[in-house]
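Dear Dr. K.,

Following up on our conversation at the group meeting, I've run the structure prediction for Glutamyl-and glutaminyl-tRNA synthetase from Thermoproteus tenax. I'm pasting the input sequence below exactly as I used it, so you can double-check it against your construct before we proceed with anything downstream. Let me know if the numbering doesn't match what you have in your notebook.
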Amino acid sequence: MENLEDLLLKYALLNAVKYGGRADAKAVMSKLMAERADLRPRAREIKELVEQLVAKVNAMSPQEQYTLLASRWPEALEERRPREEKRPGIDSLPALPNAERGVVVRFAPNPDFVLHLGSARPAVLNYAYKLKYGGKFILRFEDTDPKIKRPLITEEVNAYEAIREDLRWLGVKWDEEYIQSQRMEIYYEYARRLIELAEPTWTLARPRSGAS
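The predicted structure tokens came back this morning:
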């Protein structure tokens, strides 16, 4: 059985990771009393220790909290992770700075062919980070350069659907999908705004009346 200080540290780290880097002493105390009824007679004594450990945890950065929890109690992270996220190797991925509240990642294939190993790798890696931290995975088809990379749509192969099917086979689920060629009006509008912002704002001064 874990000693009391280690147990409280684990609960404080779990609470902090769950709630954006700030552990709550009352929540940690409630969890302890719920799971360790034998400690209830010592509640007043333990309360002081809880407050000390919560203060220690809250002095850490969210990344430090997550790293310490993952290194000492990885099984605690497994317990709070949805079933989909329980995939081998995710916890061993290099940490991303400032990602504890979730990430937005994207996979942007050119639909001129089916996926190959080189293009599948970033899709899987990005999705793994989405599972590690939570957030959003975006699938964005880059198909606005038909002269160099013409989209592949024939009777035999539709690259858009083939890529979607390959991602499903890899176990990658996307939250949003965009096809760039269908969003040209949006790009033109922002290009127009940028051009307007770049235009000179100064005007020539008028000559004073009576000046020669």
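Two things stood out to me. Residues 5 and 49 are 8 Å apart (CA to CA). The two ends are 98 Å apart (CA to CA).

Best regards,
J.T.
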